[in-house]
Amino acid sequence: MAARYELHGIWLSGPAYKVGLMLALCGEPFDYVHVNLRAGEHKSPAFLAKQRFGQVPLLVDKGNGRALCQSASILEYLAEMLGKFAGDTVEEKIQAREWMFWDFDRLSPNIYRSRAIRLGLRSMPFDTVAMYYNEGNVALKVLDDHLSGRDWLVGKGPTIADIDIFGVIDYAAAGGFNLAQYANISAWITRFKALKGYAPPEAILPKESRAA
Q1: H-helix or E-strand containing 9?
Q2: pLDDT digit string (tens) for 44-58?
Q3: pTM value?
Q4: At what angle do helices 71-82 and 14-25 cross, to 10 degrees?
Q5: What gap in Å lies between CA 58 and CA 62, rounded to an integer?
Q6: How far is CA 168 from CA 10, 29, 39, 60, 155, in A?
Q7: Helix axes 183-193, 126-146, angle to 10 degrees
Q8: Which of 59, 126, 147, 174 is the most buried if burial means most Cβ atoms within 10 Å?
């Protein structure tokens, strides 16, 4: 049976990892299409016709022809389509969404950009680098405090909020952040990696296109 979903991304992309991780945790096989950003494939007319922002990830739902963009929005879509990780109540769904918006505002920019700088993908003045690092640690402290006495971000089980934020935290060490000083985050990471279907970025995002 052909895979319903087709994920377009690149192995370096944290947001693409979030979507692939969601599919893996749901036990949903997917076709993977490598997008060569250096060659400008993400700015081609064919790609822009499906992903208006010219970014990865792009998820194509071959069951209905939808082309979806922005990782948080895709996670919400998949939670609805697959019936998993959405949250058990309206309140949990609202809180999960709030954490995802918080991540986009406070956590992911500082961690992803710090990682890009350390990998040599971006160059910035020292003051800017220090700002991202300091604000990243402020966000990590907020997350660590919230996880005190809790197994998951929202409710009694993992939700798309955990998947969304794990897809950032997994890159924190590469950004120079010392997660060992955040005991609650470290324990949460251990729980997350024990989930059925979990796989690291290199197992989910290959360096070339791959069928399900």
Answers
A1: strand 5-9
A2: 999 999 999 999 999
A3: 0.97
A4: 10
A5: 12
A6: 15, 22, 26, 23, 20
A7: 70
A8: 59
